Amino acid sequence: QEQLVESGGGLVQAGGSLRLSCAASGRTFSYYVMGWFRQAPGKEREFVAGIGWSGRSTYYADSVKGRCTISRDNAKNTAYLQMNSLKPEDTGVYYCAARNSAIIDTRTSTYDYWGQGTQVTVSS
Description:
By secondary structure, the protein is an all-beta fold. Helices cover about 0% and strands about 50% of the residues. The radius of gyration is 13 Å and the shape is globular.
């Protein structure tokens, strides 16, 4: 079983950058697809980015493509989300999630483990 803990959120001005981290405590981290999701107030949780086991395969939501980079370090049991050129509409709680599968999926219902979330606020 995986326990996920996010960190790295905060308040940043529009145009700024943040790097989110997701530390996993289980022994099988390298066998999970990792995903980042976000939820703005009053909105449903949405997919942001996903990464496959080895890190070679990635997938991004159109809204963040070109501004965000997802990566992972299996030796450290950690996944990352580098966010650049942040916009006020990027504001929300960011969650990392793990999926016991070889395929990246954008649906929240297909992920097995979730972190508690980290707040990202982008001011205009």
